Amino acid sequence: MSTERGAGPVPMVSPQPFFRSRWVPTPAHVRELGTDAGLPAGFRAAGVAAGLKASGDPDVGMLVCDVQEPVSAARFTATGTPAAPVLVSRERCRLGALRVVLANAGCANAATGRRGLDDAAKTQGAAAAATGVDPSEVVLASTGAISHFLPVDAVVKGILQARSRLHQRGDAEFQRAIQTTDAFEKRANLEVELPSGPVRLSAQCKGAGMISPRFATMLCFLQTDAALAAETADLLLGVCVKRSFDRASVDGQLSTNDTAVLMCSGSSGVTVAPESEDELRLGEALDALLRQLAIMMVADGEGAGRIARVAVRGGCPESVEVAARAVANSPLVKAALHGGDPNWGRIVQAVGGALGGGGSGHPPLAVDVTIEGINVCSEGAAIPFDEQALAQVVQRDEVEYEVGLSGEGAETEVFFSDLSHEYVTINADYTT
Amino acid sequence: MSTERGAGPVPMVSPQPFFRSRWVPTPAHVRELGTDAGLPAGFRAAGVAAGLKASGDPDVGMLVCDVQEPVSAARFTATGTPAAPVLVSRERCRLGALRVVLANAGCANAATGRRGLDDAAKTQGAAAAATGVDPSEVVLASTGAISHFLPVDAVVKGILQARSRLHQRGDAEFQRAIQTTDAFEKRANLEVELPSGPVRLSAQCKGAGMISPRFATMLCFLQTDAALAAETADLLLGVCVKRSFDRASVDGQLSTNDTAVLMCSGSSGVTVAPESEDELRLGEALDALLRQLAIMMVADGEGAGRIARVAVRGGCPESVEVAARAVANSPLVKAALHGGDPNWGRIVQAVGGALGGGGSGHPPLAVDVTIEGINVCSEGAAIPFDEQALAQVVQRDEVEYEVGLSGEGAETEVFFSDLSHEYVTINADYTT
Lengths: 432, 432
Prior knowledge:
homodimer; alpha/beta; L-amino peptidase D-ALA esterase/amidase; Ubiquitin-like (UB roll); 2 domains; 7-stranded mixed sheet; 6-stranded mixed sheet; 11 helices; 24% strand; disordered N terminus
């Protein structure tokens, strides 16, 4: 049935399943379509090589929604030094009614001041003119090295070239145009069975380094042909981003350019009313989609060989958050994860170092640590366990750490990657 | 004149100067003695191999003050999961009147619970019995892998062996016994010319990984033959630790075992009165000593090839602290430092990510960045600069970053090391 809204026959299953992590169960009402299934009805995209990447790979992407009154929602980085495209998008766009995405890789247009804002505005205007929309309907997203000025002429040429290439199956080349150090694509085409009828949901996402989004994400573009009110789109995107990209960390580094955009064409004719069963089901699908994308970003963390999930329970909302991020961002924990080293003492150290409070007169934190179900530390102290079994489970591709704090107030999780030689190699020589 | 309190002729200059960083000017009234100058009068030390290190290197160190009523001061880690030796020392010792240091490498005795406390107490008792002091006069310090139990019998044998080897020139072997992954020793013997007469000041210090002390340090033992009141010793140690070890970070990881101890024998006959010129001068010497030791810890940071100082000015005390630590602990900044890559955009990113506050309606942070005197970013935006000159200065052994924030409220600094392949290698396979 998706072919009614797609662009030809759709393969039933992609070569490798999109939902591939044990940490993201696929909702029963969600079906994976192939990577060449095309975008939901009402959307077209293109990606072209405009010369921003030295490699000659695609680097300017454009995605348009062809309906007159689309609905959208967006989230941006929480950094204090947002890039020009973030500032322009946030301040000049009708974020609830976006019609065009203009994205580029190869230059972040960050730390570029007044000129960076002017450059961003010029490309926004060019994309608006090329697609016949108002500039306020064009959201901008850039990624690449910070501090370089945007080559505006090249981007404008890319826009004109991309306009002539827009097509419903353009999501693959759009995806390539937004990638930087990504080793594999993070893209999905799903069909979601709602009580009111089937809808399509697609995503294109990039992110491999400088990943610790906090209330935003790296670049992620989402499209659906469901009809949503702007408030519903904003609510769903906000909740799902908090449960996915906000829980992912490659290196604890918040980017200047994080952007997530959900666009809804309504072309399926299926309307998702607020607080309906449709909204619940679509939310579940979006949630699974974004969590899998977040885990894929972590798995594609620069140089990543192994990924982990740390779940922290007990304490209070603030303490579980601090503890989980401390473990996820500890270079010692991450290096041990890389080496498959069962050095769980570093988890205790990371939690204790971050939470502090162990000064004179205070009892030490009663931290519990469990790795892949093997309890190794109870109330802050080592306990007997099967060392051979532990040595084996820490060699898995995905390793799960559970940390317990005193009390029972809260619970959170963070997905993270290891710290490898390749991360150092990639980042020791990025600009030169 | 130091030979009066030393143990034989003292070479005037050590082979490599102790004060070797441009960031620590040597006070005019401080003279470096040789590494074999021996401890200040009233102190003896020893280090023996007790089998805690698989390498067979020295791993149990003992240092005693031979006067009846010495004065001392101590600082410990601020972690919420302090190691057993920290808990026992903090809660059972007369920290203002310590006479013996018992230190070991090869086992941190951390995350070892009740048994760890009992083990620590046993070794404290053994050291007290071996040296004829009260257990409350024996401070404990351990370093090594977290989560392993202390081999008490081996440590006790080491104590007995060390007792028979105690001598005034034992600081070199004591130093070896407290080292773990340290690549070079961090040890000094100084003479300080005070208005009331010359005194000696010695230090033995270890630290290479899990370094981000915050209000404490890794293991550092300091001795002087000056006579100080306990309050003066505590004040001087507290102030100098805050300006040195608290400003150093290898990997942003607060240890479970950080300990700094200053012991004063008074054997020189020179009394340092509170608020005197003597106190000022001794404080200057201690300050320079601890800052150089902190920089040496960073330079010996696991796998370190290049070190840096980030100075942040403007803002408020909290914001400069957060910004400086964010830069110092950013794996992206550290990897660029490693590669000699002039990727200054990451400094803006690290500051913006840590300070946040760039949400809708807020102006971006007006961050200034200067590297080795070359101003590359003004009010958050790139400015023209000599790129070739920048590419050269970031290849130096010591690189200085200056960050300016809006306002003029505060100033701080952090010394840090780079992120190298060797750090990953060392920490991916530490316990196995």
